[in-house]
Write a structure and sequence with these properties.
The chain is built from 11 helices and 12 strands. The protein is of the alpha+beta class. The protein has a 7-stranded mixed β-sheet with strand order 1-4-3-2-5-6-7, with helices on both faces. A 5-stranded antiparallel β-sheet has the order 11-10-9-8-12. A hairpin with a 5-residue loop joins β10 and β11. α7 packs across α8.
Length: about 300
């Protein structure tokens, strides 16, 4: 699972990383069968480690033990045939855990990648480390405000960073590291509060496990609906529309340090939002006419 470095930072970039992270830094990316750690599985892992003494890569395809949906294969081009003889999740995640140690980690949209990793660690009863997690996307929103959006593909194009195989784990991990380094250049000094305020997300050991089997009956259907990316109406005991049914398009079920959440796009505000599961009062299926009306902007 370890391999030689094909892409690496320049000496100046390495020096900058080690100025901010003297023990080293790891960039991580995953490819998965979908967007929800509870419903979907990891199918590829890659991590690049920069330390004072060397650079090192961990990468592996993963046998998810379920079929890879065609719509996700269209994105990352990983097929069932490619993973059938790959190691299974437990073996890969044990290797990744050893590779990570307790070094800080960066990923693009890190909540997504680390949500899957933490769920896997918990599934296989692996000890979660004391790793600080940084998000290259979140930091770039502050350091590169002139760029129209902060998707990885947009950032690498604007910053002229090479990205040959977008949506393959190693290439995306390296690209996210290069984006992060560019943000560090604009942060200028480790003493600046910018990195902690805008780049740091959480420490891994802050996570709590999302146990779908313990959901009350009125929310049990969410597992199926999230997998379908369904549009539902939801009554929520918080926010600006408290205790009123609101239309949402489901994205994922996540465990985060803030609690267990449903990630969904509110079809009134068109904003992606996080809803705490313990505040969801009721869900219901709207009519096809209403769904078409809410989605007409798409």
């Amino acid at each position: 699972m370890h391999s030689a470095i094909e892409l690496d930072l320049s000496p100046e970039e390495r020096a900058l990383v080690l100025e901010f992270f003297p023990r080293g830094l790891i960039a991580i990316d995953l490819e998965t069968t979908g967007l929800s750690p509870l419903v979907d599985r990891i199918i590829e892992v890659a991590a690049m480690k920069i330390t004072p003494t060397h650079s090192e890569v961990f990468q592996s395809l993963v046998n998810p033990e379920i079929a890879i949906p065609p719509h996700t294969t269209d994105i990352h081009h990983i097929t069932d045939e490619m993973v059938i003889n790959a190691p299974k999740s437990e073996l890969v995640l044990r290797g990744l855990l050893d590779f990570m140690g307790e070094l800080p980690i960066v990923a693009h949209n890190a909540k997504f990648d680390l949500g899957f990793i933490v769920m896997g660690f918990q599934k296989w009863h692996l000890t979660i480390g004391n790793n600080d997690i940084y998000c290259s996307c979140k930091l770039a929103r502050h350091t590169h405000m002139e760029i129209k959006n902060h998707k990885l593909a947009t950032l690498v194009q604007e910053l002229k960073i090479p990205l040959v195989n977008h949506h393959r784990a190693f290439d995306d991990a390296f690209a996210s590291l290069k984006v992060f380094v560019d943000s560090l250049k604009r942060t200028k000094t480790p003493e600046s509060p910018i990195l902690k305020r805008y780049g740091h997300l959480f420490n891994l050991n802050q996570f709590e496990k999302l146990e779908l089997e313990n959901l009350p009956e009125h929310l049990g259907i969410l597992e199926k609906l999230v997998k379908e990316a369904a549009v539902i109406e939801m009554k929520y005991s918080g926010g600006n529309h408290k205790n009123v049914f609101r239309p949402v398009k489901l994205t994922s079920l996540m465990n985060t340090p803030e609690g267990n959440i449903l990630s969904a796009r509110c079809l009134w505000s068109e904003l992606q939002k996080s809803f705490k599961l313990n505040k969801i009062i009721e869900v219901r299926t709207p009519s096809a006419t209403d769904i078409q009306k809410w989605l007409k902007k798409d």
